[in-house]
Design a protein that fits this description.
The structure is a homotetramer. The first copy, chain A, is α+β, with helices and mostly antiparallel strands. Chain A has three helices and five strands.
């Protein structure tokens, strides 16, 4: 199973704030892109998974912001699965601009059905 | 039928951009708030309408931006229904900060079902 | 010093996602609203502080998501200062819908100047 | 001068709404990406232009939405300059998913300085 991927993301103007920096909430959107791309590389398709009635919901987010990013910066997001539990998935992330680490983070996702009940993660996810 | 309402909206930090202004795309989100509030004042409940399987989708947007807004500005959004068609609804909007008109706009919404097929607007919407 | 405040926030349609829930990144924007309002109640004005050349930047965010929110839900955000350091400020947050706790969180902000150098938090902030 | 460019954009989960579609306000953010990329292909650098004290502000937006987009769709955005005035720039946009035209739009930008005063567009922009 691929359990790590690297994604290039260019900072959009609409993602900056009055301080002139990438607004800190957008990192969570970037991490979501990283998860989509990692899942795709594993041969998965998160959209198809949702259509089948299974969802990953974010239950925990920790972010450490070290340096700011600016409009038009090209960032490298590293996403990896750090822990695989029966119904939960832990990811770790790093956001780099060249050799500068801008942020590191961790999320925990839970697998649920349409009613929000916790479900065992299907094998095609964990087997990749 | 109430066909006009006035809503106070305070500009959020996350809505500003590197120029120091309210980013222009957020006006569309404000107009959506205006429509929700106007509908509520008419006795409607857009969430209940969606749960019943009818949706309003935006088919046209025109915005004229005259002056910028900044973080923490308190804006007054005026929303009114300017035209009522069997399956479409036209709204007009003005965004004011005190006596300064910051933007004016117009949207057209179409009423559709879950499959995206155009539907006659239910009477409880047009009768308010 | 007031070190706690309660803010009502209604979930906007644009803040929901395809799962039908308030997208998890928007909680960070809500916490920012809470900080603005708490600062205002303390007699401060974050916009004026920025104009004077001092900024609070987010250096750490931890969020625990317990239950989802939906479009048009009226949420109560509780924001309090949990720790005051010479150049840093720790806040704690809870997001409630009626008697249901939807999320709890913690952030750490650092006080910096225009060049991003860490600065002692001015007394008018800590004295409220 | 290149006056047209084509940009691929993948719909992010955070850009969808409870209807399951790309929220209509995000198209304005996509158009902004198209302008950045068109400017870059012309040899320009919008970030450097802002640092030199000149800005493009959006003064008019017209969008026609024809069909919805969904999470993970790969869209093709076509951006072209349709009119060049001394202090204003008109762009036209089309958003395609394969052979389906999802939206078409037009914006007008004005060139301003830090004080918001209208400025003649510098030759390096119009000469590309």
């Amino acid at each position: 199973m691929h359990n790590e991927t690297s994604t290039e993301i260019r900072v959009r103007y609409c993602e900056t704030d009055a301080m002139g920096f990438l607004h800190h909430s957008n990192y969570l959107n970037y991490f979501e892109i990283g998860r989509t791309e990692l899942f795709r590389e594993q041969g998965g398709d998160y959209r198809a998974m949702e259509e089948s009635g299974l969802f990953f919901v974010v239950v925990k987010v920790n972010v450490n912001y070290k340096q700011p990013a600016r409009y038009d910066d090209v960032l490298t997001l590293k996403t990896r699965i750090s822990k695989l539990m029966p119904a939960k998935l832990e990811h770790e992330y790093e956001v780099w601009r060249g050799d500068d680490l801008l942020a590191s983070a961790q999320t925990v996702l839970a697998c649920v059905d349409r009613q929000g009940c916790v479900q065992r993660i299907p094998e095609y996810v964990t087997e990749g």
